[in-house]
Design a protein that fits this description.
Elements lengths: L3 H24 L9 H23 L6 H30 L2 H15 L2 H8 L1 H12 L3 H27 L12
Amino acid sequence: MKYKTILNAGSIAGLFSYFMFLAFYYGLSINPIGPIKFLSLAGVLALLYWALKQYRDKELEGFALFTQLIPVAFMFSFIYASLNGMLIYLHGALIDAGYVQVIVVDSLQSIGEYKDTMVGLIGKDEYKKMIEQYESMDAATVALSDAQSKSMTTLLAGVIMAAILRKKPPIFDNVDE
């Protein structure tokens, strides 16, 4: 039960992110994993901060070293990203895989705008390979890439938050005699 707060917060973050995915796709009819996904990241980062602070204050009695908070931040990140990725994959596999086509079209339009620049940077053959990769995307590829993106973002944020929330215990207790 030591990690209950982290497990619950990571699960809530994964569900929140999935519901935002649905809201963006069905409610706004836009690419749910495009730049708009960073709006839901604010809620996830608030949950991460709250969970790390609760863990420090309750489980570690108000004091925590950086090295004590890092594994907990990684645990949150793993739970959040894997739950969200699994829900996105299951949504595409069982309910509606139409979001994949929306993502592919949006991605192709985005890189099409910078075709000349990208061909100059990576070459024509690599650019064609990139187009082929986008065109061959499926629900599993979308879910995995989104989970990787979210895990990397929250891992970085977790490291920063662990540095902010670290708090050393006092060397000497002030005990009145």
